[in-house]
UniProtKB/TrEMBL annotation:
It holds the Pfam family PCMT. Gene3D superfamilies: Vaccinia Virus protein VP39 (3.40.50.150). It comes from Nonomuraea aridisoli. This is Protein-L-isoaspartate O-methyltransferase.
């Protein structure tokens, strides 16, 4: 068994070397951004830290038909993807919700924080394509508006694809961050008995975030709270995307991911949402309920 490389603090590297001395695992010290060319190609590459991008070395050192499992961050949402090499790109075989410590070293990628209430409440963006953040100065001190979707969910029912759908469908998508002592009012509104979620969108001088309110025994309704002169409009935009997700994708096979080299022009990629990173374009397509992932993938592979 061979590992492409391990990138971690020295104290953990020493601990792993001690633990694996008598095993067949070869431990090397290298920055994971560059992989480990000496033993390539690899049938499997497993990344155990949160990555923002897939560097050329990982794909280049993967054998034809090989697979890479990576926790990939896209617009602030992380998914563990099992990707298979197909010709010049990678195609997802499965995906799942996960959370990992972020990549360090050459492949590190910083997020951007807009403070709304000192360091306690803010909006966190995954990329630097930001408008003027000062337009939101004092936005939490003004009036707020709410919109409700009519879409309900059981309190115990997971909805893992909704945040990713919002991230791909809403311009200005970001994460709402709140860091206040327990019991202190963060200054954001949630309907009585409801709660808020850290998924938000910004449009100019206004923003809104996803929330729920009680809608019966063990049931809540999705909605959004907005702040700023156009907060109600942004909240309505979130609600509309919740309704689209509920109508077309809820209970479906989930999103399909493909990772293409950055030198492939975005306009010739398969029709889908395209997230452009440093080394790659990540495309996300959404089969509707009743359509399988294979229905979308097979024709693309045949056209290669």
């Amino acid at each position: 068994m061979r590992f492409p490389g391990i990138s971690s603090p020295p104290r953990y590297r020493r601990r792993r070397r001690t633990r694996w001395t008598s095993s067949k695992v070869r431990v090397v010290t290298a920055d994971a951004e560059h992989g480990w060319e000496a033993d390539a190609p690899y049938d499997r590459i497993m990344v155990t830290v949160g990555a923002w991008d897939i560097p050329p070395a990982w794909r280049g050192q993967l054998a034809k038909g090989g697979r890479i499992v990576v926790p990939l961050r896209m617009k602030g949402i992380t998914r563990s993807l099992a990707l298979e090499r197909t010709n010049d790109h990678l195609v997802s075989l499965s995906q799942g919700v996960c959370g990992f410590v972020k990549m360090q070293g050459v492949g590190a990628h910083d997020e951007y924080l807009w403070p709304l209430k000192g360091e306690r409440v803010g909006l966190r963006f995954d990329d630097g394509n930001l408008a003027d953040r000062h337009k939101l100065d004092g936005v939490l001190t003004g009036e707020h508006a709410a919109a409700w979707s009519g879409v309900t969910v059981a309190r115990s029912e997971p909805f893992p694809d909704l945040p990713l759908w919002m991230a791909t469908a809403l311009p200005g998508f970001c994460n709402l961050t709140v860091d206040v002592p327990e019991g202190e009012d963060p200054g954001i509104v949630s309907a009585e008995g409801g709660r808020w979620f850290p998924f938000a969108a910004v449009v100019g001088d206004s923003f809104a975030y996803l929330s729920v309110r009680p809608a019966g025994e063990g049931i809540v309704e999705f909605g959004a709270h907005g702040y700023g002169p156009h907060g109600g409009e942004v909240a309505q935009a979130i609600v509309e995307q919740v309704q689209v997700w509920d109508r077309d994708y809820r209970g479906g096979p989930g999103p399909q991911f493909e990772v293409w080299p950055i030198d492939r022009p975005a306009e010739v990629l398969p029709k889908s949402v395209v997230i452009t990173k440093q080394h790659t374009h990540v495309t996300i397509s959404w089969p509707e309920v009743g359509e399988t992932v294979q229905d979308q993938v097979a024709p693309r592979i045949q056209q290669q």
